[in-house]
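Reviewer 2 asked us to include a model.

Predict the structure of this chain.
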Amino acid sequence: MAKNKKIVFYLDTTIAGLDKTQMIVDDYQYWFKDDKTTQLFLFSSAGHPSGLKPYLAKKQQTNSQQIVFLEKTVKPEQLHEYYTKKFLLNEWTLYRKHDLFRLYRFFYPLNQDTSFDNQPISIQYDIRYHENRSDEYKSYHPTQTAHIESALDFYKPCKILDAGCGSGAQFFYLKEKLKQLKTHYTGVDASRFQIIKAMDLFNLPYATFQLGDITHLDFSNQAFDLGFTESTLLFCSDPLKGLTELNRVCKNGFFASLYTIQKASPDLKSLKKGPLYLLDTGATWKYYHKITPNVYKIPDYHQTKKIMQSFENIICVENNTDQFFAPLGVKTVNLFLFPKKWYSPEKLSRFSYHPLM
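Predicted model (structure tokens):
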């Protein structure tokens, strides 16, 4: 997308009707909340549907600048100004929920203005991509979810949370077990591109994929029986808050892993922000024209252990065989969190002690 170019979606509410207009407004606010590069422009060719104005008044308390409501009916001789727009949503006559973002992604697959909506990176974490690989570059494998399957058999949970689900790679290997146990899966991810792919890949009654932030999970206390997160904590804004949130919403504990730093060298002091060290390996420089969004947030070991002392249903295991940051001269203490009642070492014979699996 060209720099500073704003995408404006147009909708003739007369043609769309109240129900479809409300669906599109809801979709817009869900997918483009606080996105200054987009706008939704509502106009009418023969009057707006009854009830739309008060509905928008309530909605626009949170999106006052992003939704434009042209209250006055457009004159017939002026309609061509709107009906020749590139993003006229009325042309999508069979509009389904979430199609607004599908349209956006179709025209702008390389949106490099939003951190983890970096499409070239997300392609690497698409389960379809990995299904067609058989070499050493294949990242996913069924053995990676063997421990979670074991915990599913142990707890037989009604609800399970995948925090940082991406496009559903872990769900792909768990879906048959979840179906067998009648367990409802909820996948949460901050990437719009990843979530829309997951929705389209896995349209199943026992799976829900939604936008969300692991550091501010929009669920009540103990909403899930079990949870897990993989390759997420080090990329979120605050891994320690992420752990605290997982502990809050998961009744029987969760699976998680992360790198920590116990003894920092003088070279790292300038990289410490509060309890976190910010390290950038530069892994995505070739895909991103600005500072890479993939900055690893590595928490302080002592602070992490202190926070975990209050986690009643978690056992923490240290295993430092993987030193991912060694080329940068950084030694880490790697922590692996498991549900306490389920845990025993023999259940992890095939477990990869790699915080970034």
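The mean pLDDT is 88. Residues 37 and 72 are 25 Å apart (CA to CA). We have added this to the supplementary material.
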